[in-house]
Amino acid sequence: MLVFLTPIHAIPSLPAFYQQLNPELTPFQRRFVSYVKRCDELERKLRYFGSECDKFGLALESAGTVDSFVTASEEVKASNPAESGNKLLESLETELEGYESQLRELNSYSEKLTTEYNEKVELQEVLEKARRFFMTEAPRIVQNSLRGPPSPGGKTESLLGDNEGGGRSGMDMRFSSVTGVVSMEEKARFERMIFRATRGNCYVRFASIDQPITDPKSGEQVEKCVFIVFYKSLAIETKLKQICDAFDAHRYSLPDMDDAPAVDRMLAENAQELVDSRTVLLKNQDTRFRLCQMLAKSTEKWTWIVLREKAVYHSLNMFKTDVSGMLRGEGWVVSEKLDDVRQAVNHAHADMGTSMPSLVDQVAKPWPTPPTHFTTNKFTYGYQEFVNTYGIPRYREANPALFTAATFPFLFGVMYGDIGHGLFLFFAGLYLLANEKANDNAKLGEMMGGMHSGRYMITMMGFFAVYAGFMYNDMFSLGLNLFRSRYEFEGQDDGTVEEGDIAAQTAPYGSDESVYPFGLDPVWHITSNELLFFNSFKMKLSVIFGIIQMFSGTCLKGINAIYFGQKLDFFFEFIPMVAFAASLFIYMVVLIFMKWTINWNSRMLSATCLDPNGDGWGSSDYDGEWKVCDADVGDGTCTPAGYSCTGSDTTAEKCPLNFGGSGDGCQPPNLITTLINIALQPGNVDEPMYDGQAKIQNILLIIAFASVPILLLAKPYFLSKQMEHHEVVHHDDEEEGEEGGDEEHGFGEIVIHQAIETIEFVLGMVSNTASYLRLWALSLAHSELATVFWEKAMISTLPQGWLATYVGYGIFAGVTFGVLLMMDVLECFLHALRLHWVEFQNK
């Protein structure tokens, strides 16, 4: 921990984590809060510039890399020391204020011009639509309305019966009208409101405007239409004006449509004004575009400068003012950067030309807990972010990111294992690596930026997916016969294999030649028990990986306890946890490997009755010595160990191992039943695998049960003893009585915390082990989906001709890309992340 003593204007951006030395002051009372506010105002202006550039589709020019920006800033400060600190803010404020006022003035003028231009466009449309209406539809409507019912003589007469009355009637039938423009979205509601308000005593016509009109405020294109409403009442006129105002409909006054020259003259004048308005509007838009084009070149650089200055002043607010204008700050610096900090302070003093001294020295101990800092590179950055999202490790605590860098892509590969799909992901990662330098300097979106940050992770995920695919021997749901299968079906060369046939090994069981060199034998992909075999294999593999990873996390807890010298945590947390995990779960892994390595063919054959004179006698499947039994005893058959069979013998009687149970060690056990019976039926092993298994399991069960109360009670007990000892040594009798309540409260919290820790670990070991079965489930789902897509889209279309095959391949490629290369990648990624957060890091 260091102390910084330096003049106010000589504080550079030191690579340090500062401590707040002014906790008694609110954020608004601290010394440099006004400078922070000025930086906030500059940020607001720069955001405004960015939004204006976005309106024209202008991308902000990149300011380069952080390193180049820092180097350029140092060069500017070295050449002109006055251009820093407050002077820099003042110059930026002056420059940005001028640009903002200019841009706002242009925007205000543009909005005004757009409004005027829209009004002239709408008036032009209203004039044209109204004239067309009065020339075409109005005469026909008037003729139909004046046509009365025919008279008995076949003649039509006026209702008043004379010309004068008819003339007055024609004058009385003249309607008033309201014309204007309304949005197309509001057309139906507008028409419905007019009908209801006037009770149908009006005549409405609409005509859509072909070209959308720009909204002056939002800049969006709006579809509008011209309306004309005929009415014959002052009350209706008042209602219509109110409805137009409510729907933001623009009303326009028209000349008498019967006066054609006046209408033509008005159309011509408005058209000329429309051209002039458009010219001015385009000139304004061009001026704004050129201004935004200039701002786009410097906005990001200005933003970085403001953020740097804001960070400096925010750090200065943590410093405390000392005598003679000096600032004193305390903070943490990475040990390797101590010389850089001293050099930075001295360099700043040299640039300022001040005679006041500066000091960078260590603070006297004891220190508070330092913050955690991890130095990362391009490869480890993504994994460190994963770990920090869940929780940042304590200072000098073991960093789980180093283990995550290896286990995260590996567990992803276990779930996503497929050679073909993994190659797509692997090549995608290689493409990102090949374009690394270009993407470093490019402005990427949120998704592409995340993929660029995790480019090494994506590459490793693809690599391990290919590796697991080779292990499963699975490529687009097909097995690859790379090293020739160790099984053969009778008649497979001439295609006479039928369903139900059994494959025979090409080499003796257990020999080197009978083992497929790498991964699983491809014959399992065409067998009827394929699903059963892969389920068993992947389920056991998931449990093994899960228990190993969780046990590794528990071991890291012990390593942390040793490093920090926490004896109570080591002896009464770590040791009981290891004892509990090893006695039940590590033992489970041992049983799985034992079951895999035992020659069950030999064991089962040792408890099988055979005719000494038959073909099966003397088979190489039996590892022991063949012994012929007494032929006069029993039914004449013998076990390989020499037991005389009677036909009613149990497996335990025929098995020569004498391990106990019903199988006596000669038949493979069900591991799930064996593990459950460890707790439910102690001492009872129905199908043991080794001698004395029941006794050993009882001992392990006792260890597991004994570790729980130790984990629960031992640490709180010894902590209470330490608290009592501390109280006797450091407190007198009066303080003892006053603080007794605090001690009791603290001890109660310790007990509750330890109880939560115990319950979480004991139950978590069980639930987390089951959670790792997602490795099996997702791997199975991936392979089965790939199989379904291949069989339904490709196999079913191959016999139907080239066109059906072409379409089928398109479907196969589409669903493979969408489901397996996109959705399933994300799903396996999230599940691998969950396993590290919940199952690994909480240990």
Main sheet, how many strands, which sense, barrel? 5 strands, antiparallel
Uncertain spans: 7-13, 148-172, 732-745
How helix-rich are the residues, as a percent range? 55-70%
Question: Overall mean pLDDT score?
Answer: 84
Radius of gyration: 44 Å
Shape: extended
Count of helical segments?
24
The end-to-end distance, rounded to whole angstroms, is: 31 Å
What is the strand tally? 13
Q: Structural class, please?
A: alpha+beta
Q: What is the strand content?
A: 5-15%
Describe this structure in words.
This protein is an alpha+beta fold and 843 residues long. 60% of the residues lie in helices and 7% in strands. The protein has helices spanning 33-55, 66-79, 86-146, 163-172, 187-198, 234-246, 260-316, 338-352, 381-390, 400-416, 419-434, 436-440, 446-453, 455-472, 530-564, 567-597, 600-606, 651-654, 671-680, 693-730, 733-738, 740-771, 774-795, 802-840, and strands at residues 2-7, 16-18, 176-183, 203-208, 213-214, 221-222, 224-231, 250-252, 320-321, 326-333, 359-362, 487-488, 504-505. The strands form 4 sheets. Strands 1, 2, 9, 10 and 11 form a 5-stranded antiparallel β-sheet that branches. It is extended, with a radius of gyration of 44 Å. The two termini are 31 Å apart.
